[in-house]
Each structure stands twice: as structure tokens, then as C-alpha cells.
Design a protein that fits this description.
The protein is an alpha/beta fold and 317 residues long. The chain is built from ten helices and twelve strands. It has two domains: 30 residues; 283 residues, Aminopeptidase (3-Layer(aba) Sandwich). A hairpin with a 2-residue loop joins strand 1 and strand 2. The protein is globular.
């Protein structure tokens, strides 16, 4: 009798304990990407310094950033066109709406090509709102790449694009897709630069909304965008075939998801990837805020992104 009671007591302990272990194992498995990327986020927060130790130099390759941050979206558009003209680079100004234009820099378009792009408009169209990370850093990186590779562009199946009105529903990207189709351009893939300038380059999962995804076991999946919680939006898995064209050390984010021009191309069934900086603590501090100032941009991060894009373009044949 005593032996039977002992077994029953053991079952009372081990059965609930086993269920708890199984629940925790499942919770960790379904949140493995969230836990890994969330830990990286917290580590970045511990060591985060708002002002960069390597600010953008006023005489360096990204010096135009100092001017762009104080301009309105329309003035930024004009500054990009002026910079391209001064460097002898051919481009097409494609009207979009309300005086805004997409700025298209073609390479070799006789066959399918890779489109590398960034939006130039600001979320808040005010001189006091710098929009340094979103998206001045990406704009000056692409301008520096184009300037560096301008003599090679006619031989490479690549084109560059600066889009308008991304902050108002990815309008410029959708407009360019229609423009390209009308002219028979075959965009084989798009690489969108958005939120670069702090941390190493990383490929983020594209979605219909931006934020951090996690799962509540046996209940629901959630998205937190730094301000509020919502249901997880539609996601597009990272295109592994496109990743094969990138240096093998380019990381990917699956829990941190983004809604950028890449999402517009994906909706229209064009393969696309979003390239951003991997310091998500920084992104959370500046996204849509007046804290997105130029002194927080890191020139080393911009140089690394520039180098990656140049390597990619030079591999294209």
C-alpha cells in the first residue's frame, strides 16, 4: 500500500512537471527566432550610444547627408537630380504625383536586371525632422555607389531608383512597377535599402507592417512595433535564391519584419529583399521620431553597406 501511495505522489509531481517542460520546449521552439533576435536587441540597447562615435564627415563620401537632412522631400528630390547631373550620370525623372518624381538611373536594360532602390521622402516633411536613418543614409549610399561605378553601369544588368512617396503607401514603388511593365523592362529582382546607417547590413523579412513578431503558444501570433500590439501581418519569406547573390556573411532577420518598398515589389510578384542596419535598438529609438538626427548615423556602417552593394553590382554579368 505504501509503495502504491509513493507512486501516486510521484505521478502528481512528474505529470504536471512534464507538461510544463513540454509547454516551455514548444514555446522556445516557436519563438526561437524571436528569442535570438530579441537577445541581440537587448545587447544593442545595453551598449547603445545615441551619438555615433564615427559620425558622417562633412568632407567624406556621404557629405551630401548634411544637406539632405535639412531639406523638404521635394527639395531632396531636386538635390538628388542635381548631384547626378553634376557627376555626369544619365537618369530619367518619372512623374509620380503632386510634383514628385521617381529618379531612375539605368544600367544595361537589354535583358532582365536587378533594381537597387531607396526612397527619398521624409515621414515628417519638416526641416527639423532629419530623417537621417529613414532614409537619408540609404540615399547617400546609393549616390556614392553610382558615382563610383558610373563607368561600369552600361555593362551591368542593374539599375538604381530613388522613389517618391514611400511614406504615403509605397506610392513611388508601385508607380515604377507599372512604368517598367509598360516599357517592357524586366525587373528580375529588387533590393530595397531602408534604415541603413547603424549596425551591420542585414536582410529583413518583408511584411505588410513593421515590428517584432512573437508567438503566444496555443493562442496567437503578435506584432509589436514599439508603440502598440497587433496581429502579425502577412509575411513574405526571404527569397533564398536571391540571397545566393549576396556575400555569405549577410545575416537575415525573421522576427524583426519591415514594410518598405520591397513589400510593394513582392505584392506585385517581383522577388525583392530589404537591406537595413542590424541595430534594431537604434531603429526603435529613431523610427518616425525627431531623434532621427544625422549625428546618430555611423559612417562605418554606411561604408560597409556601400562596399556590399559595389561587390554585388560587380558580380552581375
Amino acid at each position: 500500500m505504501k509503495a502504491l501511495l509513493r507512486k501516486l505522489r510521484l505521478k502528481r509531481v512528474w505529470i504536471p512537471l512534464s507538461l510544463i517542460v513540454l509547454f516551455l520546449t514548444y514555446a522556445i521552439f516557436v519563438n526561437r527566432h524571436s528569442l535570438c533576435e530579441g537577445l541581440s536587441y537587448l545587447i544593442d540597447g545595453i551598449f547603445y550610444e545615441p551619438v555615433s562615435n564615427y559620425p558622417v564627415r562633412s568632407n567624406g563620401p556621404f557629405r551630401l547627408a548634411h544637406k539632405l537632412v535639412s531639406l523638404s522631400s521635394l527639395e531632396r528630390m531636386k538635390a538628388i537630380k542635381r548631384t547626378l547631373s553634376e557627376n555626369g550620370i544619365d537618369f530619367q525623372a518619372i512623374p509620380v504625383a503632386e510634383g514628385y518624381e521617381n529618379i531612375f538611373v539605368p544600367g544595361k536594360l537589354s535583358k532582365g536586371f536587378l533594381l537597387i532602390e531607396a526612397h527619398y521622402d521624409k515621414r515628417v516633411d519638416d526641416m527639423a525632422f532629419h530623417a537621417a536613418t529613414d532614409n537619408t543614409g540609404s540615399v547617400v549610399v546609393l549616390l556614392a555607389v553610382i558615382r563610383e561605378l558610373k563607368d561600369e553601369l552600361p555593362r551591368r544588368p542593374v539599375a538604381f531608383l530613388f522613389t517618391a512617396l514611400e511614406e504615403r503607401g509605397l506610392v513611388g514603388a508601385f508607380h515604377f512597377i507599372e512604368y517598367a511593365r509598360q516599357r517592357g523592362y524586366r525587373v528580375e529582382g529588387a533590393l530595397c535599402l531602408d534604415m541603413v546607417g547603424r549596425g551591420r547590413p542585414v536582410i529583413a523579412t518583408s511584411a505588410n507592417a513593421a515590428g517584432f513578431c512573437f508567438h503566444i503558444p496555443f493562442y496567437r501570433s503578435m506584432l509589436y512595433n514599439g508603440r502598440e500590439f497587433s496581429d502579425v501581418p502577412d509575411l513574405w519569406p526571404i527569397d533564398r535564391s536571391m540571397l545566393n547573390t549576396y556575400p555569405p556573411k549577410t545575416r537575415t532577420y525573421k522576427a524583426f519584419v519591415s514594410c518598405t518598398d520591397a513589400s510593394a515589389f513582392l505584392r506585385m510578384e517581383i522577388p525583392a529583399l530589404h537591406l537595413e542596419g542590424d541595430n534594431m535598438w537604434h531603429a526603435d529609438q529613431v523610427w518616425g521620431r525627431n531623434t532621427d538626427t544625422i549625428d546618430r548615423l555611423d559612417e562605418r556602417a554606411l561604408l560597409e553597406c556601400k562596399s556590399l552593394i559595389e561587390q554585388l553590382v560587380r558580380k552581375l554579368r
